[in-house]
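Fold it.
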Amino acid sequence: MDKQSAIAHLPGTYGFALFLRDLGLSDAEIAIRLGLDEKVTSNLLTVAEAKLRQLMSSGDNGAGSP
């Protein structure tokens, strides 16, 4: 599974946050768009990246919910 397909399979905020990061937005800009604190957004992105790695390595669609 390629990266964009894997991101599309991530649930809700995880996938959207990584999509925004791939567009070149900073964590601060992503936080503003998500309406979250920057630290919360940074943590969310860390979890999203871990879920993305897991999904890409397993090819599984069960990434879990935020």
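The chain has a mean pLDDT of 90.
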